[in-house]
Structure prediction request, 196 residues.
Amino acid sequence: MTTRWGALGAWGGVALACATLAHAADEGADARPGVAQQGAGQFVKPSDDQLRDRLTPEQYQVTQHAGTEPPFRNAYWDEHRAGLYVDVVSGEPLFSSLDKFDSGTGWPSFTRPIDPGAITTRSDHALFLSRTEVRSTRADSHLGHVFDDGPPPTHLRYCINSASLRFVPADRLAAEGYGAYLDRFQTAARDGRGRP
Prediction:
């Protein structure tokens, strides 16, 4: 059940999915390296023409020109499954469902990034407002903004555009090369916690 300022997570079934993935990983079902195992220096941002071809028009506008998608009409504002949110351009892990909450704004909101080094921030004075813009570190994708009106423990609200993200469900982490993050979801499911 999602509650305002409460951590999201449909943990029923997540423990089973995580156990299945752990078994598959132990069996070597998919040992190919993914973005999660790559070093920061290995990503080369595609050219503008390649990005236009690869991304939807909305993804391109949001990530490359600091656009904003409409609230409540985007892919992940109401996503409740356990998993990772990665940069749509680079595949870099950015946010976890373990830190997602319902802010009531119509955009996916998180209390923190999965790794502080995965994002950068800078001042944004567009629209005659003073805000803090959030960008991905590797691809320099515009993600959204961070505000200081979030829930504990951070009191931050990372208000992120779905168009800048790709969701990887917990039961697909190992298969898509993000197996290093699986233990966070296994631990949270086992302990009945909403956060790692």
